[in-house]
Amino acid sequence: MNAPSSPYRSGFACFVGRPNAGKSTLTNALVGTKVAITSDRPQTTRHTVRGIVHRPDSQLVLVDTPGLHKPRTLLGERLNDLVRTTWAEVDVIGFCVPADQKLGPGDKFIAKELAEIRKTPKVAIVTKTDLVDSKRLAEQLIAVHQLGAELGIEWAEIIPVSAVGDQQVQLVAELLAKLLPEGVPLYPDGDLTDEPEQTMVAELIREAALEGVRDELPHSLAVVVEEMIPREGRPADRPLLDIHANVYIERQSQKAIVIGAKGARLKHVGTTARKQIEALLGTPVYLDLHVKVAKDWQRDPKQLRKLGF
Ligand SMILES: Nc1nc2c(ncn2[C@@H]2O[C@H](COP(=O)(O)OP(=O)(O)OP(=O)(O)O)[C@@H](O)[C@H]2O)c(=O)[nH]1
């Protein structure tokens, strides 16, 4: 005899944690395709990118938030507001801490903020377990438990996972799904993300444009995709998508950094981004990039809106 089947569950989850905790990588591993942008450097995830995990008995919509950080500019403040709003709206929060680093002030700062969001169930996720031995992992699991106890957070689960080593990734999905409310699917099957394609394309270009020059242009670069149109008159089996995008920087002096000697760097950025966009969209792409100066865009609310913040 079959046991009564469990109810269908659906809802939203977000991963929080300090920069480099492995949130984007875990999101990608769960969703099974590259929707958020990962990198070795902190704070690459600017936009709220959702990935959707479809399972027979549940649908988990992952909302990827930027890292909470000490705001120094209007953009910083906006990002932090966005993070808190997201936290209050989701059905479950996954607090990510890397296994290979001792809990520090950054983790505590975030956990303290998390403790304020009372109603939402919270799951602690110890990431990058492939980087440590079992003794170190056990210590980290205990430390996370203790941090929760100190701050009055009762973790619904504490889950060790390696997104890179593909260990326990499915368990994370399962345990998060269990904490969702009963409901119907929120998105049609097969949807990986509801983030407009243009935003993902812009992220890929931004990522390529920042590669190697992050120290010089930490937060001064934004990308807006102006247009994505299929080239007319192409045979059906050889389509081409024309993409026009603007790369905004804050000062004239930064132009040379982005463009490089005789335009060599921008050309490389274009090639790198184009390959990634083609992989993402599954179609050949012609990518046209322009570098423009938008003075002090980080401090100007009007510019921020134009640039999608
Ligand atoms: N070895 C190992 N490395 C990982 C794992 N998960 C993430 N990483 C690496 O850790 C770094 C940071 O990962 P991200 O997923 O970009 O981290 P994040 O928390 O999204 O970072 P921000 O976007 O800066 O907030 C990258 O270099 C990843 O390749 C893992 O399971 N194992």
Describe it for me?
The structure is a single chain. The chain has 309 residues and is α/β, with parallel strands linked by helices. It has two domains: 9-178, 3-Layer(aba) Sandwich (Rossmann fold), CATH 3.40.50; 197-306, K homology (KH) domain (GMP Synthetase, Chain A, domain 3). Helices cover 36% and strands 22% of the residues. The chain contains nine helices and nine strands. It has a six-stranded mixed β-sheet with strand order 2-3-1-4-5-6, with helices on both faces. The protein has a three-stranded mixed β-sheet with strand order 7-8-9, covered by helices on one side. Strand 4 (92-98), helix 3 and strand 5 (122-127) form a beta-alpha-beta unit. Helix 6 (197-210) packs antiparallel against helix 8. The chain is globular, with a radius of gyration of 21 Å. The N and C termini lie far apart (54 Å). Residues 34-47 have low confidence and may be disordered. The structure holds guanosine-5'-triphosphate. Residues 17, 19-25, 38-40, 42-45, 67, 127-128, 130-131, 162-164 line the site of guanosine-5'-triphosphate.
